[in-house]
Amino acid sequence: MMAAAEEKTFRRFLELFIREMRMPLQEGDPLPMRPLSDLVSEDEVEGECLDLCLQHLYKYNCPCSLAAALARATADSLLQTDLSIHHLNKTVEDGADPLPQMESVKLARLVFNRLFETCCLWLKELPFRRRPQPYYETSIHAIKNMRRKMEDKHIIIPDFNTLFNIQDQEEQAFFAVFDGHGGVDAAIYAANHLHVNLVRQESFSQDPSEALCRAFKLTDERFVKKASRENLRCGTTGVVTFLRGRTLYVAWLGDSQVILVRRGQVVELMKPHKPDREDEKQRIEALGGCVIWFGTWRVNGSLSVSRAIGDSEHKPYICGDADHGIFPLDGSEDYLILACDGFWDTVNPDEAVRVVSDHLQENAGDTTMVAHKLVASARDAGSSDNITVIVVFLRDPRSPPPTSTEEEEEGVVEGEVADEEEVAEVEEEEQEEEEHEEEDEAVRVERDGGEGGSNADNGGKSRGGWPLQQCSAPADLGYEDRTDSFTDRTSLSLLGPSLEGRISLTCGSFGLSPDLFAASHIFRERALRRRSCVPLQESSISSFTDPLWPHTAMLLGQAVRRSRKLGYGSRRWGRRLPSRSRELLGLLPSGPLLPHMQRYSNQKSEVAVPQLPHDASI
Asked: Which residues is 336 bridged to in the sheet?
């Protein structure tokens, strides 16, 4: 039986969702979410229905398992009705595909009304029983970046069995990234239909790897027909990871990639399909094509990938035959990173692992912003392409990695005595150090007549040196007409790119108070100690997501207030300059002033403010 608390949560969601939906929709009413294509053929109805339901439910933070169950019930109900009355009456030209089509707007209206009816029925009697799920925590971020349009699409199905009502299999999950080119239509089509084509393969239950390859091929063939009907000229690469029990299945076309991280080390799962790969070059040339250098290696001087879904005008050189791999899992795996070439072209796997590791350590294992940090690292490294990153955690990052091999256990037993001796020595050394520190502290207190410092002076850091918490800005995940959020430009430096490595604070020469000077040294010491995950940029926006920033700003603020009370920086010392305080906080750039800032440039020589020389370094 479902836990009472979980059932209460589901019912509460259904109540709120029904209240917000304002159904049923009538002809001409605005849709809650517009479909991404104009026409839908008969074989596309299931995929479109599932996508509309899932996207709409996720907007309201519906639990994944409940969203999958509602989407399945809605799709089944709709597929059992007669949709022929909604088909378009089109004359079939010679050689054209005779598949009946309907307007996607009409289908969307039917889907949302049926979803509303299903929610009302389930609120009265909840038939859904959630299955126990493995641990699949995910972090996702996607940005348009410098491109005119967003052509990436991604899909996550952590509860694959519920979405397709599969009863006789181990728990399964599906994650995929699709990177479109020449338009987004191929990526949308693949994201909506590849998993449906996968589960419909005869070999799916016995051989998921073969089923994945056939699903890629079928998706390619059907999209080529759709492109012919609707005059589309585009394609998409894609990488899919499918988890069944303790086995990982990977299939891919093109240069979107996935890596596995096990015990902090990168495990290569695939080789991307690029024209300069020797076997791909030979295949293309054997078909009568060529690989030409034009900024990068391109098939017939055009596309920089050698395999993709779509691209009918480039067939057979750009083929839709996916490669695949099978990898058993032993429980020591940390996470997967799926991303498009906009990420991998500027960030190598080892660097990606370092970014994730640093983020988890700094945030006590919190995975919320991991994908955002990865996207920021690619963007700061120079990527101008669309960027999509999915991080799938295969175990809880807050728990220590399991010891899986017998050899390790034996090694631990054999080295137990030696370890105990080492631990005893370390404890003795630490005890001696603590005694020396206590003596020094007593001497300092006796000398200064003050009291010992408190833990509050540690900048919110734990004993291990990592911040206890981190504030982060919410990100706009919308694809179309979006503006960059602060999170997208996450700066991993303490001061922001415009100041790090260039702040110079000295006591005495500028009449700084001792408190302000001490605060500045704390500030500088932490800046030196902080490891930045991205290259330094000349100009950017500070996101203020760094956990040490609030405490450092507080120290500087307190020091400035004490300075004023003691007379430092008062009128007899000189006029306060507004631009300097803003410059110190990273809100204005240091160095030569801009024209609109020249009014603050008449500075008296005796002004007691910290100086930030343009070329100075720590």
From this structure: 260, 392
Q: Rounded CA gap, 310 and 318, in Å? A: 9
- Answer CATH for 139-399 from 3.60.40.10, 3.40.50.720, 3.40.50.11440, 1.10.10.350: 3.60.40.10
pLDDT tens, residue by residue, 360-369? 999 999 998 9
CB atoms within 10 A of CB 597: 15
> How far apart are alpha carbons 323 and 17 in whole angstroms?
42
The residue type at 455: N
Q: Which amino acid is at 611?
A: Q
| pLDDT tens-digit readout, 283-300 | 999 999 999 999 999 999
CA distance 591 to 606: 19
Backbone angles phi, psi at 80, to 5 degrees: -85, -5
Q: Is the pLDDT of residue 41 over 80?
A: yes
Note the pLDDT tens digit of each residue in 124-172. Answer: 988 877 777 776 899 999 999 999 999 999 999 999 999 999 998 999 9
| Sequence ranges of the chain with CATH classification 3.60.40.10 | 139-399
SS3 at position 268: strand
DSSP 98-137: ---EEEHHHHHHHHHHHHHHHHHHHHHS----PPP----E
Cβ-Cβ contacts under 8 Å for 442 (sequence gap 6 or more): none
pLDDT of residue 451: 36
Q: What is the band of 211 on the pLDDT scale with cuts at 50, 70, 90?
A: very high
Amino acid identity for residue 290 in this structure? C
